[in-house]
Amino acid sequence: MKNFLKIVFSISITAILATSTAQSIEIKNRPFLGIDIQEDFFTFYGTPGVSVFGGYRWDEIGVELGYTRLEDDRWGDNIVTYKSDNLYIDGLWFYPLSQKWELKMLAGAGLFRTRSSNFNFANIVRTDGGTETSLGVRLGMGIEYNIFNNLTGGLAYKYQSNTNILSGSISIFALNLTYYF
């Protein structure tokens, strides 16, 4: 009985993957522009961030260049206020799940600049506001839905490691809309 279930499971997975590949979203070989509304995964308070981005998509891969602004975020028990900017470039990989849905993964690098006030963490105190800039590695994963022929919407989790003490690493949830030309 176990072998029979394994065979049925294997055939089902193969059929699902074959069907999903055949029914992939037809947004390929096109430039795109988009916008993200983002929230820091650990704090969930403060003003949500915004990203604007553009890039180009070939079949299952793409490249994206973008700018993110996080403002008035409150971090930790010390009520640190900070504003941060992030200029990034990501490589993208798309995997179709069905005719309307696909998995989106990203890996890249970002130049992250943080300005803070009331900083008091790990025996480092900055009440006048400090500014730090660092280069970090970015990783992310999300899902996208083909709303119309040229428009997708999605939800993603993005992580960026930073070497500066003001921001450390950041984890963000993002809702996005992307328009393909």
Structure explained in plain terms:
The chain has 181 residues and is mostly beta strands. Helix content is 12%, strand content 64%. It is built from one helix and ten strands; from the N terminus they run αββββββββββ. It has one helix spanning 2-22; strands at residues 30-40, 49-58, 61-75, 80-96, 101-117, 119-121, 124-126, 131-148, 151-160, 170-180. The strands form two sheets. Strands 1-2-3-4-5-8-9-10 form an eight-stranded antiparallel beta barrel. It has a two-stranded antiparallel sheet with strand order 6-7. Residues 18-24 have low confidence and may be disordered.
Mean pLDDT: 76
For the report, how would you describe the main beta sheet?
Answer: 8 strands, antiparallel, barrel
Percent of residues in helices comes to 10-25%
Largest sheet, spatial ordering of strands: 1-2-3-4-5-8-9-10
Count of discrete alpha- or pi-helical segments spanning 4 or more residues: 1
Number of strands: 10
- Estimated radius of gyration: 20 Å
Percent in strands: over 45%
What gross morphology would you assign?
elongated
Determine the structural class based on helices, strands and strand pairing: mainly beta
Rounded to the nearest angstrom, the distance between the terminal CA atoms is: 52 Å
Give a brief outline of the structure.
The chain has 181 residues and is mainly beta. It contains one helix and ten strands, in the order αββββββββββ.
